[in-house]
C-alpha cells in the first residue's frame, strides 16, 4: 500500500555516522524532526543543526520548501544557517589569510541559498563584504570569492543596489579599467556593473561615465570568451537603459570604432561556436541599432519644412538633371510648375502636384524619403536607370518608383521589427547586419531594384501593385531565412529567387498542403489517424527521454543559469537539476531532483503559469508567455516552472506531458505533424490510383442474376 501524501521516505546522512532511513511526517514541525534525528545520533542542541539536500545545490530545508522533498531524497544533517552565517561572518574578518580565504570561498557557495543569505545579511554581513572590496588589500583568489559572494547575495533582492557606496562602485569600476587584473575578477566586476545599471538612473550615469565605451571594446577584443561575453552584457545593459538621444550617440560612436566589422569577423566568424547568451546580445544590439530608424519612420513629412522639400526636389533633379538645367526665364512659373508635376509623376508619386502628401503616411514616414535620397546619391546610375526605364514604358506598365519605395520601406520595417521592443529570449540576428554600415539603407537599395526586376518578370500593371509587393515581401523573407552572411550574398540569392521560382515554391507547398476530399479517402484518413497519433505520442515521449536544457529567467534580468530536465526510460519519473552551459545530454544520475509522473496533476501554459503572473505584462514579455508552462504536482499543488528555449520545444514538451497525464495533445505542432504523416501515408496508399478519379460514393452493387446457370457444375459427369 503506498504511503500517505504527507509522509515521504528519505535518507539522512552525517559525516562519520551510519545514515538514518526515516519516514518524514510533513505535518510534523521541522524542529521536532531535527530533534528526533539528533537524538538518534546522540547529538545535543538540535537547534544548532539543519537539514539540506546532499546533492545538487544543497539547499537548506525550511518550513516553506519542505514540501518539495520527494520519496527517496537524500538529506544531510549540517550546521544550521544561522550558526553557519555567524561562523563565516567571523571567518571573513580573520587576520589569518587561509581562514579568511576558506571562509570567503564557502560564503560564495552558500550564498546561493536564500535561507543562508537572509541570515548572513541580517548580521550586516554585506558591510564586511563592502569593507573587503573598499579597502582593496586583498587580490587574486580571495577577491574573486568576495565578488562572487556579493553577486550571489545581491541576487536574492534583499538589499537595493542603490545602497552601494561611491567608493565600492569605483573600486569595482577600477577592476574593469585596469589591465593587470585577473580575468575572473574582471568578469565578476563586469557582471556586477551589468546588474547595477538597470536599477536606477543614477547608477547608470555613474557606470556610463566611469566605464568608457573604449574600455568595453578592449574587453570585447579579448581572447577570453567569458570576458568577451560579460563585456557585451554590460554594453547591452547600458544601451537598453539609455535615453533615445544617449543611445543614438553611443551607437554613432560604436559605428566610428567599427564595432560591427569586429563582431562580424571575430565573434560571428570565430573558430568557437556562438553561445546562446552571445547570440541574444547580438540580437539585442541589432534590434537597438535598427530601432534608431523608428523616429524617422513615425514622422510624417512637413510640407513647410524647407529641408524636407529640398530633399524631395533633389530626387527630381537627380533623375531629370538635363531638363532641370533649362534657364529659369525660359518658362513661365505656370509652365515650370506643370513640368515639375510631370516629372514627379514620372518618379511615381501618386499626388504629382503635391508629392509631399504621399509621405504624410507614418509609418514609413520620412524614412521612405531618406531611403530614396540615399539610393539616388549612393547608386546614381541604378537610380537613373530605374526612373528613366519606367518613364519610357507605356503608362499602364510603368513601375512607380516613389510609391514602390514607400511601400517597400514599410515592408522592411515590418520584416526587421523596427519600432518593436526587444525580446527577452530571442537569438535571431542576421549575420550580414554586422558586416555592413548603413545596413537598412543598403538593404533598401538592393530590394528596390528587386521590385523593378520582379515588376518586369510579372509584366505587371498599376492594378497589380499590391500583388507585386506581396511577391517581393516573400522573396525578401525567404532569402533572409537562409541567414546570408553578407549583403552581396543576399543580393545574389534574392535575385536568383525570381517570380517563376516563387510560383514553383508556392505550387510545391500547395501540393503538400492539398488534401483529396473524396469520401473514401476521408474515411481512410480517419482510419489512419489513431495509428499515426500513437506514433506522434511515442515520438514526444522519446523527446522527453532525451531531455532539454532550459534557461532560468527572472523578472529583473536575463539569467545565465541553466537546468536540465528529462523523462526516465520507463516513463515514470521526471528528473531535473541545475546544469552548466555546454553539457550535452547529462546522465539521469547527475540530475538530483525528481517528480514521479504519478504525482503530476495538471499542466498549465501561458498566463496560467505562476511564474508568468509574477512578471510585468509589457509587450517584451509576450514571447515569454508563449513559451511558459508549468507542471502542478502533489496534492498541495506545487509547480515546476519551465520557459522553453523555442516554440518547437514548447510544443513537444507540452504534448509529451499531456500524454503522461492521459490527455489529448493540443499543440499546433501535433496538427502539423499529423497532417504531414497523413499526407505521406495517403500518397503511398493511393500511389496505384494515380490519375484515376475516385468517386464520392462506392459503385452500386448489381442485382442478383435471374438464374445461376452460368456457374460451372463440379458434380461427377454422368456415366
UniProtKB/TrEMBL annotation:
SUPFAM superfamilies: ARM repeat, PH domain-like. GO terms for biological process: actin filament organization; apoptotic process; cell motility; phagocytosis. InterPro entries: ARM-like, ARM-type_fold, ELMO_ARM, ELMO_dom, ELMO_domain-containing, PH-like_dom_sf, PH_domain. PROSITE patterns: ELMO (PS51335). Residues 307-480 form the ELMO domain. GO terms for molecular function: SH3 domain binding. Keywords: Apoptosis, Phagocytosis, SH3-binding. Pfam families: ELMO_ARM, ELMO_CED12, PH_12. The keyword Flavoprotein does not apply. Involved in cytoskeletal rearrangements required for phagocytosis of apoptotic cells and cell motility. Acts in association with DOCK1 and CRK. Was initially proposed to be required in complex with DOCK1 to activate Rac Rho small GTPases. May enhance the guanine nucleotide exchange factor (GEF) activity of DOCK1. This is ELMO3 protein. It comes from Sylvietta virens.
Amino acid at each position: 500500500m503506498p504511503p500517505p501524501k504527507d509522509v515521504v521516505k528519505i535518507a539522512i546522512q552525517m559525516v562519520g555516522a551510519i545514515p538514518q532511513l526515516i519516514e518524514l511526517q510533513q505535518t510534523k514541525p521541522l524542529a521536532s524532526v531535527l530533534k528526533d534525528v539528533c537524538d538518534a545520533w546522540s547529538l545535543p542542541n538540535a537547534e544548532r543543526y539543519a537539514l539540506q539536500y546532499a546533492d545538487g545545490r544543497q539547499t537548506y530545508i525550511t518550513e516553506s520548501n519542505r514540501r518539495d522533498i520527494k520519496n527517496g531524497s537524500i538529506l544531510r544533517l549540517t550546521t544550521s544557517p544561522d550558526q553557519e552565517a555567524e561562523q563565516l561572518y567571523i571567518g571573513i574578518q580573520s587576520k589569518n589569510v587561509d581562514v579568511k580565504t576558506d571562509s570567503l570561498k564557502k560564503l560564495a557557495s552558500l550564498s546561493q541559498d536564500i535561507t543562508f543569505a537572509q541570515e548572513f545579511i541580517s548580521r550586516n554581513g554585506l558591510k564586511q563584504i563592502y569593507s573587503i572590496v573598499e579597502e582593496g588589500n586583498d587580490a587574486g583568489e580571495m577577491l574573486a570569492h568576495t565578488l562572487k559572494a556579493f553577486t550571489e547575495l545581491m541576487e536574492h533582492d534583499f538589499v537595493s543596489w542603490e545602497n552601494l557606496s561611491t567608493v565600492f562602485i569605483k573600486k569595482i569600476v577600477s577592476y574593469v579599467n585596469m589591465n593587470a587584473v585577473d580575468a575572473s575578477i574582471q568578469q565578476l566586476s563586469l557582471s556586477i556593473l551589468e546588474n547595477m545599471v538597470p536599477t536606477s538612473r543614477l547608477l547608470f550615469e555613474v557606470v556610463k561615465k566611469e566605464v568608457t565605451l573604449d574600455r568595453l571594446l578592449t574587453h570585447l577584443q579579448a581572447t577570453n570568451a567569458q570576458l568577451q561575453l560579460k563585456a557585451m552584457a554590460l554594453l547591452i545593459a547600458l544601451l537598453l537603459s539609455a535615453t533615445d538621444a544617449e543611445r543614438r550617440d553611443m551607437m554613432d560612436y560604436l559605428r566610428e570604432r567599427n564595432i560591427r566589422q569586429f563582431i562580424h569577423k571575430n565573434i560571428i566568424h570565430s573558430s568557437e561556436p556562438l553561445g546562446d547568451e552571445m547570440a541574444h546580445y547580438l540580437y539585442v544590439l541589432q534590434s537597438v541599432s535598427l530601432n534608431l530608424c523608428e523616429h524617422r519612420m513615425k514622422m510624417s513629412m512637413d510640407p513647410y519644412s524647407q529641408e524636407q522639400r529640398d530633399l524631395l526636389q533633389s530626387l527630381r533633379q537627380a533623375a531629370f538633371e538635363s531638363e532641370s538645367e533649362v534657364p529659369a526665364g525660359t518658362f513661365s512659373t505656370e509652365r515650370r510648375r506643370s513640368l515639375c508635376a510631370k516629372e514627379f509623376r514620372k518618379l511615381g508619386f501618386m499626388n504629382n502636384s503635391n508629392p509631399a502628401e504621399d509621405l504624410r503616411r507614418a509609418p514609413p514616414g520620412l524614412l521612405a524619403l531618406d531611403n530614396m535620397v540615399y539610393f539616388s546619391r549612393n547608386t546614381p546610375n541604378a537610380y537613373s536607370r530605374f526612373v528613366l526605364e519606367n518613364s519610357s514604358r507605356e503608362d499602364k506598365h510603368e513601375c512607380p518608383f516613389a510609391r514602390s519605395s514607400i511601400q517597400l520601406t514599410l515592408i522592411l520595417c515590418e520584416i526587421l521589427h523596427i519600432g518593436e521592443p526587444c525580446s527577452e529570449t530571442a537569438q535571431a540576428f542576421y549575420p550580414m547586419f554586422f558586416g555592413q554600415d548603413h545596413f537598412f539603407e543598403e538593404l533598401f537599395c538592393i530590394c528596390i531594384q528587386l521590385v523593378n526586376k520582379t515588376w518586369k518578370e510579372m509584366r505587371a500593371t498599376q492594378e497589380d501593385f499590391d500583388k507585386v509587393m506581396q511577391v517581393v515581401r516573400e522573396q525578401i523573407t525567404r532569402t533572409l531565412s537562409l541567414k546570408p552572411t553578407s549583403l552581396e550574398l543576399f543580393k545574389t540569392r534574392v535575385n536568383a529567387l525570381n517570380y517563376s521560382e516563387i510560383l514553383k515554391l508556392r505550387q510545391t507547398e500547395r501540393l503538400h498542403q492539398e488534401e483529396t476530399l473524396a469520401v473514401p479517402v476521408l474515411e481512410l484518413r480517419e482510419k489512419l489517424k489513431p495509428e499515426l497519433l500513437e506514433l506522434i505520442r511515442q515520438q514526444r515521449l522519446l523527446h522527453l527521454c532525451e531531455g532539454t536544457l532550459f534557461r532560468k529567467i527572472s523578472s529583473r534580468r536575463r539569467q545565465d543559469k541553466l537546468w536540465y530536465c528529462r523523462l526516465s526510460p520507463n516513463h515514470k519519473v521526471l528528473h531535473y537539476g541545475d546544469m552548466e552551459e555546454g553539457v550535452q545530454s547529462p546522465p539521469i544520475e547527475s540530475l538530483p531532483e525528481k517528480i514521479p509522473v504519478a504525482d503530476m496533476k495538471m499542466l498549465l501554459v501561458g498566463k496560467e503559469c505562476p511564474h508568468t503572473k509574477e512578471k510585468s505584462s509589457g509587450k517584451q514579455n509576450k514571447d515569454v508567455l508563449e513559451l511558459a508552462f508549468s507542471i502542478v504536482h502533489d496534492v498541495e499543488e506545487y509547480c515546476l516552472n519551465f520557459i522553453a528555449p523555442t516554440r518547437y520545444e514548447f510544443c513537444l514538451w507540452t504534448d509529451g506531458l499531456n500524454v503522461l497525464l492521459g490527455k489529448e495533445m493540443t499543440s499546433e505542432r501535433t496538427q502539423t505533424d499529423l497532417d504531414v504523416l497523413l499526407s505521406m501515408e495517403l500518397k503511398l496508399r493511393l500511389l496505384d490510383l494515380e490519375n484515376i478519379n475516385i468517386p464520392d460514393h462506392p459503385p452500386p452493387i448489381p442485382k442478383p442474376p435471374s438464374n445461376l446457370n452460368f456457374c460451372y457444375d463440379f458434380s461427377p459427369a454422368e456415366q
